[in-house]
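Suppose you are handed only these lines of text.
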Amino acid sequence: MGELVNLLDLERQDRGIERLEQLLAEIPVQIEVLESDLQTKRSRLEAAQAAVAKAEKKRRSTESHIEANQGKAQKLNAQLMGIKTNREYKAALAEIEAFNKKNSDLETEVLLLFDQLDELEQERQIAATEFEGFAADAEQRISRRQEQAAVLEAEKRDAETSREKIAEALEPRLLKRYEKLRKKIGNHTIAQLVKGSICGGCNLNLRPQFAAEVRRGEKLHYCENCNRFLYRPESPDEADPETH
Ligand SMILES: [Zn+2]
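From them, the structure of the protein bound to zinc ion can be written out as follows.
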């Protein structure tokens, strides 16, 4: 039953290659998740930075507005002495008063902006700490995944070379049958006889006469239901229905 040993060996290699391919396929997905998390945290930091900058700009423009108003009020104040009529004098005083009132509102606004800036700055620092901490870790994890991929690729190439050797040693007719079945049902083409009369692949009961032939284990059989290679297990308990 050297054929069986080779077949089992071939399938073991194919399963190994399949497993390596699954692991390799997961790596880009894992990297993508890390990159997307990184992007989310980067965006949060950028939004926090932009909010600080916006509030800062608003504060500066409000302060220069206050300065301009002060300048205008001072200028009016200096002109008061030269005003001839009472009506004009009153009007100028009212204008000065209006600038002062406006500035009082603007100063309140500046105080609120300072409070807001404190909060925004705190938020920016949290976002920065979080991003920097995560970025260092994520970049390490990404490069580790890339290294893993290179190792898995090498393992896969080795497994494929071994597989080729085993396939070449196999009888072409058997190999062809194996490949055909494998294309249909994947790397589960070989089954054991279970409880003396059941195909371990499809779990169906075999004809008694056929099951008896498989139990004798003189040659390789194919399940009459599912077409899998069928073989007698090593354990006599499993092979002999009388013990069940
Ligand atoms: Zn079967």
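What can we learn from it? The first strand starts at residue 190 and ends at 194. Residues 86-169 form the longest helix (84 residues).
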